[in-house]
Specification:
There is one protein chain. By secondary structure, this protein is an alpha+beta fold. It folds into 4 domains: 105 residues, Nucleic acid-binding proteins (OB fold (Dihydrolipoamide Acetyltransferase, E2P), Beta Barrel); 77 residues, OB fold (Dihydrolipoamide Acetyltransferase, E2P) (Beta Barrel); 74 residues, Beta Barrel (OB fold (Dihydrolipoamide Acetyltransferase, E2P)); 87 residues, OB fold (Dihydrolipoamide Acetyltransferase, E2P) (Beta Barrel), CATH 2.40.50. The protein is 24% helix and 34% strand. The chain has 8 helices and 20 strands. It has a 5-stranded antiparallel sheet. The longest helix is centred in the N-terminal third of the chain and has 19 residues. The protein is rod-shaped.
Amino acid sequence: MEQQEQAATNRHNAHVTRPVGDADAINGQSADQRDDRELMEQFLANPEHDYRNLQYGDTVDGTIMRVDRDEILVDIGAKAEGVVPAKEMQSLSAEDRAALRPGDPLLVFVVQSEDREGRAILSIDRARQEKSWRRLQQCYESGEVIEAKVINYNKGGLLVNLDGVRGFVPSSQVSGISRGPDTQKQSDMARMVGQNLALKVIEINRNRNRLILSERQAVMDVREGRKGELLSALKEGDVRTGIVTSVCDFGAFVDIGGADGLVHLSELSWSRVKHPGEVLKPGDKVQVYVLSVDNERKRIALSLKRTQNEPWATVGERYHVGQVVEGVITQLASFGAFARIEDGVEGLIHVSEMGDGRVQHPREVVQEGDVVQARIIRIDPARKRMGLSMRQPAGDDEVAANE
């Protein structure tokens, strides 16, 4: 106050002692008027008095001044502090409110620029919602996968909360919901309440407050990302543990940690297999051998049989000429029948070795699936061939001659 009085006295003395002339008047203003104008310009130029011109709908960063039970006082750079009433912070949990401290930054939404007391009415709930809508729009445009908790469900699907924005996940877009009766669907959805799901925004309309998400697409995206990483890491000759995901006529698909590889029918077993279902079923845990990796087409060829010893490599240790073995007829041909001695080892019973009499066709003697006793008359491990005979041996001399 003393400084202001002294400044006024100085201006008065200067006005009294200084002669008035052209230099003392500019555009009709006296020296006193000019000094007052300069002081006002300095006052307005002071950053401390550069107040914001707030309007409804603005989202601003503020600083907490005081936390009361029913309201929060926030400095938002206006002429007066803004206030967040209790009804505008319902999205805060008890833990969130307990963590608020004076001096902490706080994002708020302007509900009313000024009330009768001159304070701005602010909302934390709407600020969080606004921030969430903006982030969701970015996620929709970029295709980013997000995570949200299931808070409820209805007849059509799941309801999730994303920082104040409610989203809907149709049941058709959730991999964990069955395609069976409605009662089963409702049971599946009820079980998922409280779970966190990976989701992808597939439709967003802020004006209609509409947000549709898909868990299926998110899982596919995550899986594709893992598949790319897996393809880069895989190499021919690797042995991996996997889970059978599906079985079809030409083979079985096995998930080896983020990507499915195909085990072709011919790579399922060393023995003859007519259908993959004879060997595998979905859900089986298996060891598989990586045959090849095609990074461009993102395909992986696997083998089940190559994780097992090739039976012909040690067939000479288990069998010898003259030995009588039991076999199962697996295939008939005009020249004879094939009999499986063990998995991966088959022998040929030539039509001339099917009996002591003349046989025109093997079906006169055996059918597929028949179990027969046969004598080994030839073994060629290198060519993976074995000759069998169902004829009665003539005597020890014949056996010796064959040996």
